[in-house]
Amino acid sequence: MLYINSEAKALHINYRFKERMFYLKILVTNEDGIFSAGVMALSELLTHFGEVTVICPQNDDYIDNVKPSLNRPLRLKRVEYPDGINAFTINGSPSDCVKLGIEEITDGFPDFVFSGINLGANVGRDAFKSPSTRAVEEAYLHDIPAAAIAIDECRACNINFSKIKESIYELLSSLMAGHLPSRSAFNINIPNDVKANIRGTKVLPMDADASKYRFKKLVSLDSEIFYFLEDANSLPSNKRSDLFYIQQNYITISPIVVRNTCESELEDYRSWFAGITGG
C-alpha cells in the first residue's frame, strides 16, 4: 500500500510535467553528493509530485560506511538548494540520511524515498554493494516505498539530465500514484539515452552471477600496485540479467526484498547446529 496523505486521497491527482502538485512527502538521498547533477535533476523532477527533502552525505568519507553511526553524533547542516527544496548534509552514509530523514527531519513519515540519480549503473552483483541500494533497504525496513535510480554512465558531462527526466517521468509518476504492496523497494537502472531510443522496461532480478565492473591493475614507475574499477563492457549470456538488458537500452527494474532471517531453511540450520553443538 502506498502511503498518501488524506488530502491526496481526496483529490484527483493529475500529474503534468510542468505543473507542480504538492501532495506527497518525498525524501531523496544520493551517493554522489548533494550538489551532484543527478540528485539535483531528480529532486527538481520530484517537486512536480510533492514536497521534497534532500539529505546527502557531506563528503565521500561517509558514503561507503555500512555501519550505523553509533560512536559519533550526526551533524546536520542546512544547505541552499534550488526550487526552495529543504536540503541538508550529514556526516553519515546514505542509509544514515534515510533513517534520520524518516525518523527526525520530515514532518511525519515520507510517502516515498528515492536514492539517485546516481552515476554508473547498479546492476548484477555490484548492486548488492551499492550505498544507493542500502539506502533503499533502510526505507524498506521502515515500511516506506522506495527506489534507487542509477544511470548507465559514469561521467556527468556525458549526460543530458533534461532528457533523462523526460525518460523517467511516466515511470516515477506511476510508482507514486499506484497502490504498491507493503514494503515495496526497487533498484532501477536507466540507459543514458533519449526517451525515443529507450526500447522499453524490463522487470527482472539483479543477476548475482554477473558484474559490470572489473578491476584493472596498474603498476607505477616506483613499482607500487594499484587497482581501478572499470566497465568490463562484457555481455552476459543470461537473458534474464539486468546487466544484459541495460546494455540493450532497456530500463531495468529489480524489486528488492530484505529478510533478517532465512526462514525457509531455518529448521534445516537448527538441526545442523544441534548436531555440532549437542543443543
Which keywords apply here?
two-stranded antiparallel ribbon; disordered N terminus; alpha/beta; 5'-nucleotidase activity; 26% helix; nine-stranded mixed sheet; Stationary-phase Survival Protein Sure Homolog, Chain: A; 11 strands; single chain; exopolyphosphatase activity; SurE; 279 residues; SurE-like_Pase/nucleotidase
Task: Kindly describe this structure.
- The protein has a single domain (6-208, 235-260), classed as 3-Layer(aba) Sandwich (Stationary-phase Survival Protein Sure Homolog, Chain: A).
- Helix 2 crosses helix 5 and helix 3 (94-105) runs parallel beside helix 4 (131-141).
- The chain has seven helices and eleven strands.
- Helices cover 26% and strands 23% of the residues.
- The chain starts with 5 loop residues before the first helix and ends with a helix.
- With 279 residues, it is α/β, with parallel strands linked by helices.
Helical stretch count? 7
Q: Assess the beta-strand content as a share of residues.
A: 15-25%
Radius of gyration (CA) equals 20 Å
Which class do the helix and strand fractions yield? alpha/beta
Biggest sheet: strands, sense, closure? 9 strands, mixed
Q: Please give the domain count.
A: 1
> Strand sequence of the main sheet, in spatial order?
3-4-2-1-5-6-7-11-8
Termini separation comes to: 42 Å
Q: Strand tally, please?
A: 11
- Provide the residue-averaged pLDDT: 82
| CATH homologous superfamily assignment | Survival protein SurE-like phosphatase/nucleotidase
Q: Specify the CATH class.
A: Alpha Beta
Proportion of residues in helical segments: 25-40%
Give the name of the CATH architecture. Answer: 3-Layer(aba) Sandwich
Outline type:
globular
The CATH topology is: Stationary-phase Survival Protein Sure Homolog, Chain: A
Low-confidence stretches: 1-22
Order of helices and strands: HEHEEEHEHEHEEEEHEH
Organism: Salinicoccus kekensis
Function: Nucleotidase that shows phosphatase activity on nucleoside 5'-monophosphates.
Pfam families: SurE
Cofactor: a divalent metal cation
